[in-house]
Amino acid sequence: MIKLAEIPWPEAAALCREQPVVLIPVGATEAHGPHLPLGTDAFLSEELARRVALALEVRGTKVVVAPTLSYAITEYAGGFCGTISLSPATATSLVTDVCSSLIEQGFLRVCLVNSHLEPAHVASLRAAALATEARTGRKVGFADQTERRWARTLTDEYKRGACHAGSYETSLLLASRPDLVREARHALPPLPINLAEAMKEGKATFEEAGAHDAYFGDPASATVEEGESTYALLVTMVVTTVDETWA
Question: What pLDDT shows up at residue 247?
């Protein structure tokens, strides 16, 4: 796997001529309970991009992974220390500029790999993809796990909408960065609150939705096995998006 940030510019120029797929991991810096790091979404996207790169390269597709975008709209977790949020306009402009810059240099196949699911953030990524296409004339791939066709394949907790720092995300991190998962997760009681429904009801923060420790779901039930099976589904999602975007 080639990381764009780790190669000199002449190698980047040579790589560009090979027309690789450029994966941009997208995450956030926000509270994920008392047991997961603030950078959870970024770490999950980086691992997913790594696995997607391996899957594509096995097929003979050249891939490069761009530096991770670790700042996003994180308004719901704003009351917890360490959470850093962007305005919607800034978030959309940031992603648009990064994608456009890559395309204007000749990297024509750019795909966003996202693990931060706050609705306003997902909307900003969709807006950025459209703005980039309007600016450059080139499509941007966006593997959106909130789409029904992908969401229905994921775990029961995910489908119940109680998956922020619960079993879903904790399992993914156990399968990729177990050193970052605190043992405190074992003492956390299940919190089966549907965050998606709470958002629709007008709840504006995690606290208003009932998550006073910034987690929803059941972190104590997380397993490496669940994380591995979920990564396999997410890899299929991104690879399919690449195939559909540049058939």
Answer: 83
Task: Give 8's contacts (C-beta < 8 A, 6+ positions apart).
Answer: none
In this structure, the chain runs to a length of 247
User: Model pTM?
Assistant: 0.97
Question: What number of CA atoms fall less than 13 Å from residue 29's CA on the CB side?
Answer: 11
CA distance 89 to 83: 18
Sequence-distant (6+) residues with CB within 8 A of 200 are none
Nearest CA to 188 out of 215, 210, 148, 209 is that of: 215
Tokens of 143: 């593997």
- Residue 130 is encoded by which pair of tokens? 């459209």
Q: What is the CATH number of domain 2-235?
A: 3.40.50.10310
Q: What is the 3-state secondary structure (H, E, C) of 93-114?
A: HHHHHHHHHHHHHCCCEEEEEE
Quick: pLDDT tens for 181-219.
999 999 999 999 999 899 999 999 999 999 999 999 999
Backbone dihedral region of 137: left (phi > 0), alpha (psi from -120 to 50 degrees) or beta? Answer: left
List, for residues 18-49, the tens digit of each pLDDT value: 999 999 999 999 999 999 999 999 999 999 99
Write the CB contacts of 40 (distance below 8 Å, at least 6 apart in sequence): 27, 32, 115, 165, 169, 173, 180
- CA dihedral angle for residue 49, residue 52, residue 54, residue 59, rounded to 10 degrees: -150
Does residue 75 sit in helix, strand or coil?
coil
